[in-house]
Amino acid sequence: MPAADSPEADRPDYEVLEVAGYRLLRRIGEGSMSSVYVSYDVATGTPVAVKLLADHLAHSREFVNRFYREARLCRLLSHPNLVRGQAAGFDPATGKHYLVLELIDGPSAQAALAIHGRFSIGAAVQVGIDIARALEFLHSRHYV
């Protein structure tokens, strides 16, 4: 197991550095179901985000189905305030279920708050409007 401050600490399972032709560079998010990595397509050099289903859920039909439902919706739903999905599948070489997403360059809202402090009223209103537009889009298609 790598030390917490070593370069390997943010790597996925620290042996799995490539999944289905996507090179995983560093973890940028993690939840109870999955982890997301800044990555790139080895064949094209295109930067992407790769989401990996957590190993402890990979054998649960319910969670695998939920993961692929998200993948399908990410590819079908096109809106400027939603992240687009590009590909999904199972990589037999690593035993990982993966979802390839467009990479959004920049910090999360939480990271921006930590770096810059409170948003100005105008910036906070714009973030709220962007979220509302995405929710309205999803609601109009009966997903929310």
Structure description:
The protein has helices spanning 61-76, 109-116, 121-140, and strands at 18-19, 22-30, 34-41, 47-53, 85-91, 96-101. With 144 residues, the chain is α+β, with helices and mostly antiparallel strands. The protein has a 6-stranded antiparallel beta sheet with strand order 1-2-3-4-6-5, with helices on one face. The longest helix is centred in the last third of the chain and has 20 residues, at 121-140. Mean pLDDT is 89; it is low at 1-9.
A few lines on this structure:
This protein is of the alpha+beta class and 144 residues long. It has 3 helices and 6 strands, in the order ββββαββαα.
Map the helices and strands.
Elements: E1 18-19, E2 22-30, E3 34-41, E4 47-53, H1 61-76, E5 85-91, E6 96-101, H2 109-116, H3 121-140
Antiparallel strand pairs: 1-2, 2-3, 3-4, 4-6, 5-6
- Please give the count of helices: 3
Strand residue percentage: 25-35%
Level of helix content? Answer: 25-40%
Task: Identify the strand order in the major beta sheet.
Answer: 1-2-3-4-6-5
Largest sheet: 6 strands, antiparallel
Rg (C-alpha, Å): 17 Å
Mean pLDDT, to the nearest integer, reads 89
Give the total of beta strands: 6
Low-confidence stretches: 1-9
Structural category: alpha+beta
Q: Estimate the global geometry from the Cα principal axes.
A: globular
